[in-house]
Amino acid sequence: MAIKYGRPIELREVARSSGAVASPALDLTVRPRRNRKAEWARRMVRENVLTTDDLIWPLFLIDGNNKREQVASMPGVDRLSVDQAVREAERAVKLTIPCIALFPYTDPSLRDEEGSEATNPDNLVCQAVRAIKKEFPDLGILCDVALDPFTSHGHDGLITDGKILNDETVAVLVRQALVQAEAGCDIIAPSDMMDGRVAAIREGLDHAGLLDVQIMAYAAKYASAFYGPFRDAIGSAKTLVGDKRTYQMDSANTDEALREVELDIAEGADMVMVKPGMPYLDVVRRVKDTFAMPTFAYQVSGEYAMIAAAANNGWLDGDRAMMESLLAFKRAGADGVLSYFAPKAAEKIRAQ
Ligand SMILES: NCC(=O)CCC(=O)O
Ligand SMILES: [Mg+2]
């Protein structure tokens, strides 16, 4: 190492203040704490900053009017009727959050084996997109593409004899993407993890003349326990049969994440995502370093619930844990974060 830490023995004792305890000064030339001595000094050397531009706010939708229903496992998060979602969209605009994401709680009577409601051009998501775009055309809207909010079995794809049918599912996902894009959605975000869906969706969008609709691929989505509260929110927790490990990734792998991301980029993804977030920051870093693509992370429902629950119990300073967890994504190389904390974090950033 080039740095020399020592200094001549005769200089060691000279800088002691009179009030110092009687112990010899350490022989240190380099003292990293100097750069942390005051808030202005810390700001000067700060390497990463979280801004409102880094936030994407996921919202849950429910049928009805003037309705807000608490999601029990996500304190502070509600399911919203379309008119209420428009009000939250207004809040996003005022907070300068660039983009929201929409997730429907589909009425159980509309769920079936094939997830047909996903391709209904007048489903809850499409209604919300149209209503929000009408009032706030400059707010970005991201829509998930996957069948789980619409299927009676809670899986993201079509099933026969307990097996997910990849290619048949992709054909349905293209139609789902098209109804959402035609309603005015700006970013199509396939979260299903079927092989080949990004290419098929890109081709479908281009064929329909929807050349400007972006694709944010949930490229590396892991089979995770942290999705629990989300399934509660969209009402698939009780109906889900089995697990999703034949399509979502094994949490032990990171090389596989790079292969998944590489494929989605080759198939036309404009942006890629890693999900969940906090337990997979190593994956975020590798993806960003390897591909230099716009890279996003999803701080999922379970991550939100952990912090919110601990804060509600007085075990954590909720605001500080929220900001620290969001900054961690920036440090890992993410360009942005989907987080249920988005409005709260944006309020805090703007108050600073
Ligand atoms: N496709 C979107 C999700 O699965 C969200 C998961 C979560 O927030 O737990
Ligand atoms: Mg894939």
UniProtKB/TrEMBL annotation:
Pathway: Porphyrin-containing compound metabolism; protoporphyrin-IX biosynthesis; coproporphyrinogen-III from 5-aminolevulinate: step 1/4
GO molecular function: porphobilinogen synthase activity; zinc ion binding
UniProt GO BP: protoporphyrinogen IX biosynthetic process
Entry's Gene Ontology cellular component terms: cytosol
The protein's assembly and partners: Homooctamer.
Family: Belongs to the ALAD family.
Name the record gives this protein: Delta-aminolevulinic acid dehydratase
Species the sequence originates in: Bradyrhizobium neotropicale
